[in-house]
Specification:
seven-stranded mixed sheet; 24 strands
């Protein structure tokens, strides 16, 4: 029985000691439990390094938090301690919430200033403190943007700890305001954690403060607290910033739509100018096209055979017509010019013998200069074909600098357009200028759009510049403008085209058909009507006693009835040879 009495007495004494202990008094006052108080008096090495942090947040009526943190580093403080603040957090689907942390300073336990450096990482702010040899530190700062009206009340929401560089054994947070809290919550752990913190309360039955406790916070872990207050008790609202996204960067607002519309006036103005410039050709067609829609022969020459000879409208040669119509010198223009030079007696086209399944080849023979003046580009084309020789096979063209010589022919043909005053400027250079300007505008629009997308919400307006640049680039093909004289000649050539597409061979006397229809053929190549006039020419040649053409010679078994197929094959082969030089793909 005495042992039981002794045990009961010991228990009573132990209970009395517990009630009289300082910890019990603190608990009675509502202070949160302390993990350090449970440690034995004799600490192991790990306990000597234990860090604690006591955070006090005073919330003013204006919604500004004035913070003071009392850090204790134990008996073995680190050389440096990093305290991280979370300054940008998600708010809603389109915005982030911004917390402005300012006035950061620190002193040690003796009141001496501690060197503090900050590192802004966008979403977080790292505060580095030199804690070498310092057992305590007091960190002070101010936070704006932590208060926001929510529903029927006001909430103070703040990530009290955004991260530590060392494990902290105990973190306490006390939020004090002019009015008592109505509700509170907290989460702890890794960012966006939903795990509740170690404990939280409102200061006992008096409920005058919000208090939170989190133990054993590893580096990088956070402590997020929310305290609710009555509506209107504390002023202030959240600071929000719109998050970047493609949708937000290209937001269509009345302002961006207005700017977009204004910028689109540029391509519209260019198109209007193009319509006016091209309208010159349309006006000429209405008044001048009929002048070319007639038999292109001249019977005024008193020479042999009744004086009938071919006379194209405005004395325009095939290469000139092709360039005038589509405003660019191309493969068809050169092919038609070669045939025209043969018809006019400057060269002979000879179809070489070939086996049934072998490829057909032709030989061009240079003829003594007839009494027929050559234009500049025609003379250069003859030189490009023959150079220092008098004969050349079609299959051998493309060698010995032929591409470079052909490029000079093309440039001379463009210069001829200006010399004839059909264009104010060379069409190829005019196209290149406008295409270059369009590309430059497009690139500028791309750069502007990217810059606006990164730094503003008005990237939609930059699309108008891109569209304008693309419109100018495409419109460059229509920018070469014919002069009034060029438009008249253009109308006459289209009248000539109408004649060739519908003319009756009976319009020319039989004895002149071979010579006149031969002159038609190069123009038919330009107008893509070679099949019809090759057949007509072959039929006209069959009526001639010579049964042949002076400028096209076939192999021994060849007949004039084969001419239509032969000239089509020749034109197709020559077009391929010229295209293979790549001059007409790279030069404009």
């Amino acid at each position: 029985m005495w042992r039981v009495g002794i045990a009961r007495a010991a228990a009573a004494v132990g209970a009395l000691l517990v009630l009289c202990a300082p910890g019990a008094a603190s608990a009675q006052e509502g202070a949160p439990p302390s993990a350090a108080e449970s440690l034995p008096a004799s600490l192991p090495d790990d306990a000597k390094r234990q860090i604690t942090n006591d955070i006090r947040l005073d919330l003013g009526d204006n919604g500004v938090l004035h913070a003071e943190e009392s850090l204790s580093f134990g008996q073995d403080p680190p050389e440096e301690f990093v305290r991280t603040f979370s300054v940008r957090e998600p708010y809603d689907t389109d915005h982030s919430r911004i917390y402005e942390v300012t006035g950061i300073s620190a002193v040690d336990g003796a009141g001496r200033e501690i060197t503090v450096t900050t590192d802004d990482r966008g979403d977080t702010l790292d505060v580095r403190m030199d804690t070498s040899g310092r057992f305590e530190a007091v960190l002070r700062y101010t936070v704006r943007g932590a208060v926001d009206p929510v529903g029927g009340g006001t909430e103070m929401e703040w990530t009290a700890v955004g991260g530590y560089s060392r494990t902290v054994a105990e973190t306490t947070v006390v939020v004090d305001a002019a009015v008592p809290p109505r509700a509170l919550s907290c989460t702890a752990g890794r960012a966006r954690s939903s795990i509740y913190c170690t404990s939280s309360d409102m200061g006992g039955h008096e409920a005058v403060r919000a208090r939170f406790l989190q133990t054993d916070m590893d580096p990088g872990e956070t402590l997020h607290v929310v305290v609710g207050y009555p509506a209107g008790a504390i002023s202030g609202e959240a600071i929000v910033d719109r998050d970047w996204s493609l949708q937000s960067a290209f937001a269509i607002t009345p302002g961006t739509a207005a700017v977009f519309g204004v910028l689109l006036l540029v391509p519209v103005g260019v198109l209007i100018a193009l319509i006016r410039i091209r309208g010159r050709d349309e006006r000429a067609l209405r008044t001048e096209a009929a002048a070319g829609d007639s038999t292109p022969v001249d019977a005024s020459d008193p020479g042999a055979g009744g004086g009938v000879r071919f006379r194209p409208p405005d004395d325009v040669h095939p290469g000139q017509i092709g360039t005038l119509i589509d405003e660019q010198a191309d493969v068809v223009d050169i092919t038609a010019t070669v045939v025209d030079l043969a018809v006019r007696g400057h060269l002979t086209i000879r179809e070489l013998p070939h086996a049934q399944f072998s490829a057909t080849d032709w030989r061009l023979d240079k003829c003594p200069p007839p009494d027929d003046a050559l234009l500049g580009y025609e003379s250069m084309l003859l030189d490009a074909l023959f150079h220092d020789a008098h004969q050349v096979k079609l299959s051998e063209l493309g060698r010995s600098g032929f591409p470079a010589r052909l490029a000079r022919v093309r440039e001379e043909l463009y210069r001829d357009m200006v010399r004839l005053k059909w264009f104010a400027n060379r069409p190829n250079l005019e196209r290149n200028r406008w295409a270059s300007a369009g590309i430059a505008i497009t690139v500028l629009g791309l750069v502007l759009t990217v810059v606006l997308a990164v730094f503003t919400k008005a990237a939609f307006t930059g699309l108008a510049v891109i569209i304008a640049g693309a419109a100018v680039t495409v419109g460059a093909q229509f920018m070469p403008a014919k002069t009034r004289q060029g438009s008249v000649v253009f109308a006459h050539t289209l009248g000539f085209r109408s004649y060739l597409l519908s003319a009756d061979a009976e319009d020319v006397p039989p004895e002149h058909r071979v010579s006149v229809f031969s002159r038609y053929l190069p123009y038919a190549i330009i107008f893509d009507n070679v099949d019809r006039w090759a057949a007509v020419l072959a039929a006209a040649g069959s009526e001639d006693a010579a049964d042949g053409l002076p400028w096209y010679i076939g192999p021994d078994d060849w007949r004039l009835q084969d001419f239509a197929d032969s000239i089509k094959s020749f034109a197709l082969t020559l077009t391929g040879v010229i295209s293979n030089t790549r001059q007409f793909r790279t030069l404009n």
